[in-house]
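ESCALATION

Customer reports they have been waiting on this structure for their group meeting. Please prioritize. Original submission:
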Amino acid sequence: MGLKYSVFAAFSRAMRLAGVPAPPTAGQRVLLYHAVGTEIPGDPYGLSISPKLFERHVECLAELRGEWVPAAFGPARKDKLEVAIVFDDGFRDSLTTAAPILAARNIPFTVFVTPGFIRDNSPHHLTREQLKELAAVPGAQIGAHGMNHVHLSRAGDAEARRELLDSRKFLEDALGRSVTLMSYPHGSADRRVGALAKDAGYVAAGTSRFGLNDAGRDPLFLCRNEVLAVDSVERFELKLRGHWDWFRWRHKDPAAT
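Update from on-call: job pushed to the front of the queue and completed.
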């Protein structure tokens, strides 16, 4: 991935120098992280960013406060340029490492949790008690990420419905509060899955498609911009400002399939 990703980064840098795209004036940019410091076995993508680099990303956001308004994950507004930080899978470091860095700067964030990892006592993911502790952190909100982290678009209706409903019920029972946000495991979604998610009671859901969400974006197919371990502060800012948005054309929009 190293050489290919370097080429992608060089192209994105050229886009910035060319002034493409024009700076947005409204919408929500969702920055997607996974782990912050946890060593993920067999990780070919660099999903675990170092705590030091993550803190530098957050400091960059803090310096841009006013230009970008920190916001909770959800539908975009017409009058503001927002940034939302989210985490997939529910790694323990979302509580132990990321949460203190974000809470110290009053930046809200959302952690999408796969309850199956809690049930199976995964050593890298939140326990039930840690989930409750995380939910109590100022600015934190909890969303679902499928019960067992399966590709929902490959699953039949019955299995997909169970994944959506069981994950929500598990989290609501554990937290004693409503859970209406989710992200699709592996970014695996289409209109059928979106309809099932709506029927299961979700009001907003995240995909793996790059881009800025405008106020007209279907909230069940919100774009998210993945941030990886190799993303320097410069690359991070390129993603923040939309110079990686061309990357969305590598995949079909799940809202249109």
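Sent to customer with the following note: The mean pLDDT is 96.
Escalation resolved.
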